[in-house]
């Protein structure tokens, strides 16, 4: 069966086509297309919800067309339409949900609303070397930072999460006050490669808290204080400050992930979400896990941030696991706030 996936929760419009295979075989990605609105929102220093919704409207059908062309399939071949039901911006979500339901109604096929974070979580299954259950998942995105125990599709137990900012937010906010634009995570990471990570002593919040929770709000304040202290010198020391900031974030992420492995006794880690693209995080985690004989899986680099492939994939895996009830009433709703444990 062919599943069309539509992602529109924030500032990326993503569409993809996957094909489910026999039981026990991972679904196959046939084509995907993406449009990022980053440039449009950059002038405002953050995502403007109304502009995001309007741009999703403009992009979603051309992207769908492109995915069909790439895959050599016709719209009529699609057997299920999946869309991101939440969490995310309400208006942005409604665009994807509305288009998905309209397409499905016209095709007379069912629709399925997918949890955005389940999409991120299952995105490593799109890689050439997919993980096996069970594993510890480190979900690090722009809006979430969670450690989970994952025993199978739909079997997610929260081990710990951030009590304030997400890891991606820590990257973005620090980058913003260093004048690196929005979202500055990738720019901060790039600059950090030229800096000295030991140059500034920044806090590692909750590192020794004994639980698996995170806190990044204090780090951002410490970066701000350091930047102010540097004054005119900031420009010359920016790479050092970026490297020190990245080291603080990565340090906490790696140590808490190791603690989660220890407390669960599991020997496999899956990293997902935009911050999973961070090279420093990957190399530190790889090194620490190699020492302990633990396997680490990542999504492909271009599938770490939002995309339609992970939505189609999550739908395919839920259907295969017998967990999803695709709908035919086309009465869609969206869930701007929606905890992963609730599904
Ligand atoms: P959520 O999925 O929680 O709703 P989101 O969809 O906005 O949030 P993602 O698309 O998964 O988040 O990831 C975007 C985040 O990843 C941004 O905060 C961005 O700065 C960060 N990011 C992307 N690449 C890197 C990198 N190389 N280093 C650090 N951060 C990065
Ligand atoms: Mg985004
Ligand atoms: Fe996301």
Distance separating the two termini: 24 Å
Strand content: 15-25%
Largest sheet features: 5 strands, mixed
Residue runs with pLDDT of under 50 for 5 or more positions: none
Total beta-strand segments: 10
Query: How many helical elements?
Result: 10
Helix content: 40-55%
Q: Mean pLDDT across all residues, rounded? A: 97
> How much is the radius of gyration in Å?
20 Å
Helix-strand pattern = EEEHHEHEHEEEHHHHEHEH
Keywords: Acyltransferase, Cytoplasm, Iron, Metal-binding, Transferase, tRNA processing
Cofactor: Fe(2+)
EC number: 2.3.1.234
InterPro entries: ATPase_NBD (IPR043129), Gcp-like_dom (IPR000905), KAE1/TsaD (IPR017861), Peptidase_M22_CS (IPR017860), TsaD (IPR022450)
Secondary structure blueprint with pairings:
Blueprint: E1 2-7, E2 12-19, E3 28-36, H1 38-42, H2 49-71, E4 78-86, H3 90-107, E5 111-115, H4 116-122, E6 135-140, E7 145-152, E8 155-161, H5 167-177, H6 185-192, H7 217-230, H8 234-264, E9 268-272, H9 279-291, E10 295-297, H10 308-320
Helix pairs in contact: 2-3, 4-10, 5-6, 5-7, 5-8, 6-8, 7-8, 8-9
Magnesium ion binds at residues 10-12, 142, 305-306.
Catalytic activity: L-threonylcarbamoyladenylate + adenosine(37) in tRNA = N(6)-L-threonylcarbamoyladenosine(37) in tRNA + AMP + H(+)
GO cellular component, one term: cytoplasm
Family: Belongs to the KAE1 / TsaD family.
């Amino acid at each position: 069966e062919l599943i069309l996936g539509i992602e529109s929760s924030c500032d990326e419009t993503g569409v993809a086509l996957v094909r489910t295979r026999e039981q026990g075989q991972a679904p196959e990605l046939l084509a995907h297309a993406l449009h990022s609105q980053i440039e449009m929102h950059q002038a405002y220093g953050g995502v403007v919800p109304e502009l995001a919704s309007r741009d999703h409207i403009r992009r979603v059908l051309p992207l769908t067309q492109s995915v069909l062309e790439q895959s050599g399939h016709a719209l009529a071949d699609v057997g299920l339409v999946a869309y991101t039901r939440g969490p995310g911006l309400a208006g942005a979500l409604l665009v994807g949900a509305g288009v998905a339901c309209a397409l499905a109604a016209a095709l007379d096929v069912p629709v399925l609303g997918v949890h955005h974070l389940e999409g991120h979580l299952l995105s490593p299954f799109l890689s050439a070397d997919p993980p096996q259950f069970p594993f510890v998942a480190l979900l690090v995105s722009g809006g979430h930072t969670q450690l989970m125990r994952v025993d199978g599709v739909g079997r997610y137990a929260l081990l710990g999460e951030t009590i304030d900012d997400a890891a991606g937010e820590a990257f973005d906010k620090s980058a913003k006050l260093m004048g690196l634009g929005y979202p500055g995570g990738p720019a901060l990471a790039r600059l950090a490669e030229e800096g000295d990570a030991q140059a500034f002593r920044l806090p590692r919040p909750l590192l020794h808290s004994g639980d698996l929770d995170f806190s990044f709000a204090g780090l951002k304040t410490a970066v701000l204080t350091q930047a102010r202290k540097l004054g005119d010198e900031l420009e010359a020391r920016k790479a050092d400050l970026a490297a020190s900031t990245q080291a603080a974030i990565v340090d906490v992420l790696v140590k808490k992930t190791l603690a989660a492995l220890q407390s669960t006794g599991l020997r496999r880690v899956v990293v997902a979400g935009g911050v999973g693209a961070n090279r420093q995080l990957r190399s530190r985690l790889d090194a620490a896990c190699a020492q302990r004989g633990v396997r680490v899986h990542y999504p492909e680099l271009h599938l770490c941030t939002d995309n339609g492939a992970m939505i189609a994939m999550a739908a395919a895996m839920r259907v295969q696991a017998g967990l999803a009830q695709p709908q035919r009433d086309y009465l869609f709703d969206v869930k701007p706030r929606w905890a992963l444990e609730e599904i």
